[in-house]
Each structure stands twice: as C-alpha cells, then as structure tokens.
Design goal:
It is built from 18 helices and 25 strands. It has 652 residues and is an alpha/beta fold. The chain folds into four domains: 319 residues, TIM Barrel (Alpha-Beta Barrel); 54 residues, no CATH class; 185 residues, 3-Layer(aba) Sandwich (Rossmann fold); 48 residues, Immunoglobulin-like, CATH 2.60.40. The strands form five sheets. An eight-stranded parallel barrel has the order 1-2-3-4-5-6-7-8, surrounded by six helices. Strand 16 and strand 17 form a beta hairpin. Helix 1 packs parallel to helix 3, helix 13 runs parallel beside helix 14 and helix 16 crosses helix 18. Bound molecules: beta-D-galactopyranose (GAL). Beta-D-galactopyranose binds next to loops. The site of beta-D-galactopyranose has 11 residues, from loops.
C-alpha cells in the first residue's frame, strides 16, 4: 500500500535542466514519494500553435522516475498561452460589469466557451500520447483550482447562449420557466428562450430563481469541462487516478458533481492565508495567526473526504509564509508537520507540499517553498522529512474512522443564501461551521454527507444546517432515520424554484415536526438576545408556531430549540456559547462519547490510531482516553504545534 505518503509540487520548467537530477535526489532523500508537475506549462509545451515541445517534460519525468519518484501530471488548461487568445478572442471570461478579464496572470478562460474546451481536449490528448505510458506517471490532475480568482461565473456571450439552451432543456416550455421564476411579478414574462439574458446588469436585483438557475448552469459547466479531460484520461489509462485540486472554503460550484468524473478529490491547504482572509473574529485571528484556525482545515478535510467518496489528498500544503494575504506570517515552528499529520489523521492518502523551491521571479516570489531560492533548506524541508520518517516508522494506514455524527453539506444552499441573504452574510457554510466546531472541541469525529444522501446508516446524530430546500432523498432519509436529528434555521424554507412552500418552512410532515415559521426577525449580528440559561441568538431568529416541546427559549420568549421525539429544530443563529450548549445537549441525548481536550487541541481517529494536534502556542496536557493503549509518538504533554499519536485498544 503506497499510502499515506508525502509529496511535493515541482516546476522543472522554472529551473535549469542541470538542476533536475540533484533536485530529484534530494526529494527522495526527504522521503518524498509523489511529485506533481506540469499544470501551468502550456506555453513551454506548445509555444505557438502546433509547435509541440514535450521532450523536456519526458526528460523531467525520466529524471524523477530514476529516483523512484511517482509523478502526477497536471493538464495546463488553467493557463492558456497568449496565442490562444488571438485564436479565440471571445474565450476570456467576462466580469459582472460586462468587462472582459485580461491576459497576464491565469485562469483567463470561460467555462462556457466550447472552442476553448476543445483546445483543452486537444492538449489533454497530446499529453496522453506523449507521456501516457511513462513508467513514472502515477496519476493526472485536471486543470488547477477551478474557480480560483473568482472565475466560475462569467457573463460572456458564450455563457448567455449556453444558459438559454440549458434553460430550454430544464423547463421545456417558456410558460414553465415563467411559472418557475415567478415572472408575473414586475411583468418579467418571456415569450421565447432566446430573449433571456444573464442576471447581471439588471436595474435592481434579478429574480432569485433566475440567479439560482444561472448558478446551477455555471456549476454544470465546470462539471462538463472536467468530464472532457476525465473521459480522455480514463479511456487511455483506466488504471491511473484522475484528481483535481479543489480550494479550501470555496463553494461557487457543486464539488460533488465535479467529483463524479474524478477518482480522487484533493484540496489545497493554506491555513494561515485562509485565516487571514476569513471572517473570523479579531480575537481568533490574533490567537492563531501563525497556525491557522484549529477547525478550518479539519472541516475541509471532512468535506473533501465526502467529495472524493473516501479518497482524497492534499495537493498543495502551505510550507511557510504565502504571498497573497494582507500580511503573511511565518508559521510557528512545527506547523508544516502538524498540518500534514492532521490531514493524514482525517484520511488523506498524500500530503504534497507547495512547492519544492521558492521562485525568485514573478508573482509568487515571496511564497515560501521547502527550499529557499538559493536552494538551501527552508524550515519546512526538515518538517516534511520528519513527517515522511514518522509515517514510515509508525506504519499508519487504514481509513479515517466513520464518525457517529454527520453533517449535511450542500453547495446549492450556499448559493441560495448568497442570492437572498435577508440577513447580511447569512451563510450555509457558516452554519455548518457553527455546528462542527463545538463537536470537534469535544473530540467527536464528524463525517460530511452530500444532500443526495438517501439514508443515514450507523449515525447517532445527523445535523442539517440551513438547508435551502428539501429534496426527495433527504426527505426519505429523515423519515426513515432512527437516530437524533438537528435541523437548523431556514431549512426547507424554499422550494427548489426559490419560492416559499405552501406549508411554510421547515416544511416537514406534522408527525415528524409540528412547527411552522410564521415570521423572521433578522438583525445586525451584534444585536444579540440572551437565551435563558446561557448563550445568545441574533442575526436570524424565527418565530415558530409549534406544538413541539420547547427545549430552549430566549429572554423574549421566542422558542430557540424545539424537539419532537428525536427530531430537534433550531430556530435561530446562535453564538458560540449557545451552539456549544445545543451540541452538548444533543451529543448527550444521542449518547455520543466525548473527550476532554485542552483548548486549541483537536484529534481524529484513523485506523487504530488517534492523532492529537496542538494548534496552541503553549504546551498542553492530554487526559488519557479509555480506549487508548498508550502513545506511540509524542506523549501526554503536547508542545506548541505538537503532534501526539495514541494507539487504540481496538481497531476502528
Ligand atoms: C494555489 C495555487 C498555486 C499557488 C498557490 C500559492 O491557489 O494552486 O498555483 O498559486 O495557491 O499559495
């Protein structure tokens, strides 16, 4: 079993050929097993149309292969060369003000442009032909970070034409579309599909259903784009995994859909950069500015494990300061090791550091690598090597343990609440996090489930936060579930066409939940209302007409948490204290075992190991857990940025 393993991202085209051998030698010495190359190299593979120069790529793979390294080759389709724009001037994405986005960086293409899609198929076929049988080839990466730099939604002519066809296929008749979009409101009725425009540039907001369909359409284009490359790769080499490197905390397209044409999901983890650009409080940012927020990575790991149906990698792991936030702090010594261990504990097959050597030129010259620009080791070089050694010594393997708690994560809901927030910043992702963090603080392992889930086997507690609209799968799963359920505010408050359901939200059968949301009070999140017994609600509060048992209510006597049997409904957005109370109540009701973790320490079970990681900048002491036999790495005292691994008494 080649996993888990350490990898690195490498750009042979950035360095003199004479360096490659030594680079490969040192990579092997570090204990690196996987090297990703090629994903931005189009202008060097085909400097002008039809002028093919694949020799250097083959040579670099020969060199890496000689040192026993396995190579993942990325298609270079995120960086179409300059000549491509001459050939297809209309392939550039267009921003919401109608302005074409220019050449001179990357991702300057439109997912709807079929001419460019064909160019991508052509370069993929060429790659397959030239290196598809290379003995060092271990897998493919499609494109690079779909959506990075805000590139999913494009308001181009290609998108307009594509959208019209997509709508016709969805609705069949223009009358059906008018009905679904509520077009009678403001006389927005259409006579024909070819009259429909994209929802930007309207005088005031376009209809929410119009927007939502555009989001669905745009997401489908990413899936279609990925499928072209996947089909070619699988036809040629069914044995090799096709991988895409998704981004952290990115929701502009449906990742489950794209992953239908992938074998492995991967994501690019930059914990410090992500915290810097997140909406976390100043206090959290100040505490963890050299570590990243303790639950941010874990949640992404769990999401991508779900997206990849259990198979997932970190394709890019932050190794030191990045270059793209306002400030780019140096990680605490040990973090490059901790992040990798955390990913492995959540089930990652490979953690690949970005990048081998810091580039002394161009946009990312301030971004660290494992090597400095003068080829001397940077701190992460030693940490990566330590991880590789520890993995080997411990022989860690197996799958991430199935959690007893699961959370449904839904991209459609994220788009819906962006389209119609009603309370500024209301977000599905945030509500997922609000439930995830208190669980993780209690040492509870969590699984993420897609909204297409038809049952919840083996879970004691399932949480459905802020779900836009029920689908048949989830309705069936809920009706048949015998465990505890927590359904969050706003769930089921819309139909799939973005209208209020006749029964009003949460729109569940009365025998499951006898409750109706009759009014919503949305406020600036600072206008909190205390909840009797502790914690507060604010931002979103629903007034419920209900016969369910009121478990918690606020100081103004609004029910906050109600229960009917094992089904609980949370009718508000809660602050951290309230969410901890709610989660603590539910894990107790559902009899989910917990651990006593010091602040800043998290853990995750994989196979027969429990891995603890200390995001704090001071040492902490672990309380021995009943199911552990003892520590096999580190000990009860876990230093700042430290890792401790415990062996469990029974195999998970
Ligand atoms: C990622 C990207 C890499 C590199 C990196 C820098 O988003 O995939 O190519 O730009 O960020 O942190």
């Amino acid at each position: 079993m080649p996993f888990p393993a350490v990898g690195v991202c490498y750009y042979p085209e950035h360095w003199p050929v004479e360096w490659w051998e030594e680079d490969a030698h040192r990579m092997a010495e570090v204990g690196i097993q996987y090297v990703r190359i090629g994903e931005f190299a189009w202008s060097r593979l085909e400097p002008s149309p039809g002028d093919l120069r694949f020799d250097w790529l083959v040579q670099s793979m020969d060199t890496l292969g000689r040192h026993g390294l396995k190579v993942i080759v990325g298609t270079p389709t995120a960086t179409p060369p300059r000549w491509m724009i001459d050939k297809h001037p209309d392939m550039l994405a267009v921003d919401k003000h109608g302005q074409a986005r220019g050449f001179g960086s990357r991702r300057h293409y439109d997912f709807s442009h079929l001419g460019y899609r064909e160019e991508c198929a052509r370069i993929t076929r060429l790659l397959i032909e030239k290196i598809g049988k290379h003995p060092a080839l271990a897998g493919w990466q499609t494109d690079n970070e779909y959506g990075c730099h805000d590139t999913i939604l494009s308001y181009s002519e290609a998108a307009r034409q594509g959208f019209r066809k997509w709508l016709e296929a969805r609705y069949g008749t223009i009358e059906a579309l008018n009905e679904a979009w509520g077009a009678v409101f403001w006389s927005m009725d259409y006579n024909r599909f070819d009259q429909i425009d994209l929802p930007n540039l309207t005088v005031t907001e376009a209809a929410p259903a119009h927007w939502l369909d555009f989001r669905r359409y745009s997401s489908d284009q990413v899936a279609a784009f990925n499928k072209v490359q996947f089909d070619l790769m699988k036809a040629a080499r069914p044995d090799l995994p096709v991988i895409h490197n998704f981004m952290g905390r990115f929701t502009d397209f449906d990742h489950y859909d794209v992953a239908r044409t992938l074998d492995v999901a991967s994501w690019d983890s930059y914990p410090i950069g992500h915290l810097a650009v997140s909406n976390e409080s100043d206090e959290v940012k100040a505490t963890y500015f050299r570590q990243g927020e303790p639950d941010a990575q874990g949640l992404q790991h769990d999401i991508y494990r779900a997206v990849g149906h259990g198979r997932w990698w970190i394709m890019e792991q932050q190794p030191g300061p990045v270059n793209w936030a306002e400030y780019n702090p140096d990680p605490l010594p040990g973090m490059a090791r901790l992040w990798a261990w955390e990913a492995f504990a959540h089930g990652a097959e490979v953690v690949s550091y970005f990048r081998w050597r810091q580039a002394p030129f161009s946009q990312e010259q301030m971004h660290a690598g494992l090597l400095r620009p003068d080829s001397e080791p940077a701190p992460a070089y030693h940490e990566a090597s330590q991880v590789a050694r520890e993995l080997k010594e411990l022989g860690i393997g197996g799958a991430a343990r199935k959690g007893r708690v699961a959370i449904v994560y839904d991209y459609l809901s994220e788009w819906a609440w962006q389209i119609q927030p009603q309370a500024k910043g209301f977000s599905h992702h945030q509500h997922v996090r609000n439930c995830y963090v208190p669980l993780r603080k209690r040492g509870v392992d969590v699984d993420i489930l897609p909204p297409s889930t038809t049952d919840f086997p083996g879970y004691d507690l399932v949480i459905i936060p802020a779900l836009f609209s029920w689908n048949d799968a989830l309705r069936t799963a809920i009706a048949n579930f015998e465990g505890h359920l927590l359904i969050g505010p706003r769930s089921g408050s819309k139909t799939e066409n973005f209208s209020i359901p006749q029964a009003l939200g949460p729109d569940l059968p009365q025998n499951l939940l006898d409750a109706k949301v009759t009014r919503v009070d949305s406020t600036d999140p600072r206008r909190a209302v205390s909840v009797k017994g502790g914690g507060a609600v604010g931002h979103w509060r629903e007034r419920l007409d209900t016969r369910a048992q009121v478990v918690l209510e606020d100081e103004e006597d609004f029910p906050v948490l109600v229960a009917q049997g094992k089904l609980n409904y949370l009718a508000a957005s809660g602050d951290r204290a309230l969410m901890q109370r709610v989660i603590d109540h539910l894990i107790e009701e559902a009899d989910v075992p917990t651990l006593d973790l010091p602040a800043g320490v998290r853990c995750r079970v994989r196979g027969k190991w429990r891995v603890y990681f200390n995001y704090g900048d001071t040492a902490a002491n672990l309380a021995p857990a009943q199911d552990e036999k003892g520590y096999v790495l580190g000990g009860a005292q876990i230093g700042p940025a430290g890792v401790t691994v415990a062996l469990l008494a029974t195999d998970a």
